[in-house]
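User: Show me a protein chain along with its predicted structure.
Assistant: Here is one chain, sequence first, then structure tokens.
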Amino acid sequence: MKKYIVMLVIFILILSGCSKKEELDFENYYDLNTYKIFEPYQQSVSGNYINYMISNNYDVDNIQSRLMDLSSKYFKTSNYYYQAGQYLDINSIKELLNDINPDYKVNIDGIEMIPKYITYIHEQNYLDKNGDLAGISIGLALNKYQSYKNNYGATLYKEISEEELVKYAKEKIKDVLSYLRNIDNLKDKRILIGLYINASPNSTLPGSYKYFGITSDNNISFKAVDFSYHYLDSNNLTEKNVDVYNGFKAFQGQINLDNIYISGYGLFEDNNLVNASITITSDYLNRDKLIYLESIISKALGNNFQMKSIITVYIKVNNQIVGMVKKDNNNQIFNYIL
């Protein structure tokens, strides 16, 4: 017996988790393909263990959800089932992280430290329709921002180049594959590996995968991928996709109610908008005004975002979601009032 990951459950989870200031729901952000889960459900044997601190909290969920997106290119959602990692337990991850990180000091911009280049390992399993393992996916989080303590005990960071970091990680992949191939059920299974660059500690957006590859033996070739998050009103977005930037500016201008604030961010792949989340906040909206606001939003979405992408607009009053308007890939618009 199998069951679908129901998008309604995801929506409920979003609602229950949005009491924090501008909480961003990156985990369920891509929203294009949904895996089925093979039952009985089994938790990850590692409990998603994090040995070295990831300084940006948004990265942990994003590493997991974007790895699922990469996996769907090879383990199609129509043919395979998702299962949480069953092969790398806490001790295995500790051992592997220790093996693939330096145990010696290096000098980074005048500071001597033992760097943690690879901070997190995430495992996902993909099963065929009989429940047999078809392959696994491994996400490796690479850390550009090496932390150290100054003379006053404050935590500071030194940044290393992405090129240097990726080169180091690729050199260690043979050790990762060798470790995995020594596990009985993984000797000849397909293994997908993604290299994820963590965001800076103070960023309010997560990092992204930059390279991935898949192999059935101990040799792997990596392909570059271009996932990135951007605020929709950021000047940097004009270099990536000026149509989305202009569309958002026009959208803001058409939501012409007093005492509201509009913000938005988007996930881009190869400069194309895949998914966007827009938040409209207000101190007070009665039901009539909320209905009117949703009608304006629906029209503005249709006018300004006619590309193949999913856009969700959350309406918040006193930091609580009271309504939602969603445009799907086919430009159909759905309204919800809570």
